[in-house]
Amino acid sequence: MIGPELQKAIFDALKAAPALAGGRVYDRPPPPPSGAFPYITIGDDQVIDDGNSCGDSWEVFSDIHIWSRPQTQSKAEAKTLAAAIVGRLRAVSTVPGHVVTIVAMESARTFRDGDGITEHGIVTMRFVLDEA
């Protein structure tokens, strides 16, 4: 089964030097006003059993959220971070206890959050992991 190992690999990839979003990568961000923008949160995962008679395998869809409040009210900062996230996570090749066979971007979108001032991006990454 997939435990926290993939989340740790994602966190480590996003925090590797130079850390994205100034190192503000969270499972749960600090509450405002202490939380600075932009920042990234590791969101929900969907894990699908992809095993067969040859061994255990899982397909995991991981959502990574981007939160930005640029003075220009442009989505450019969120889109730039989304591209950087995809680049970092495509390079994930090690997850303890698993063999990473596929890493791909499933989808990416940016939109104005419901508060009217925050640009929000969501990158969904697909990982296929075989048991080591």
Structure description:
With 132 residues, the chain is of the alpha+beta class. It has helices at residues 5-15, 76-90; strands spanning 25-26, 39-49, 57-68, 94-95, 98-112, 119-131. It has a six-stranded mixed sheet with strand order 1-2-3-6-5-4, with helices on one face. Strand 2 and strand 3 form a beta hairpin. It starts with a helix and ends with a strand.
Outline of the structure:
With 132 residues, the protein is of the alpha+beta class. The protein has two helices and six strands.
Chain-wise SSE layout:
Layout lengths: L4 H11 L9 E2 L12 E11 L7 E12 L7 H15 L3 E2 L2 E15 L6 E13 L1
Radius of gyration: 16 Å
Q: Would you list the SSEs in sequence order as H and E?
A: HEEEHEEE
Judged by helices, strands and strand pairing, the structural class is alpha+beta
**Overall mean confidence score, pLDDT:** 92
Helical content band: 10-25%
Distance between the termini: 11 Å
Low-confidence stretches: none
Count of DSSP H/I helices: 2
* Count of beta strands: 6
Biggest sheet statistics? 6 strands, mixed
- Strands in their spatial order, largest beta sheet: 1-2-3-6-5-4
How much of the sequence is in beta strands?
A: 35-45%
Core attributes:
132 residues, alpha+beta, 6-stranded mixed β-sheet, 6 strands, 20% helix, 42% strand
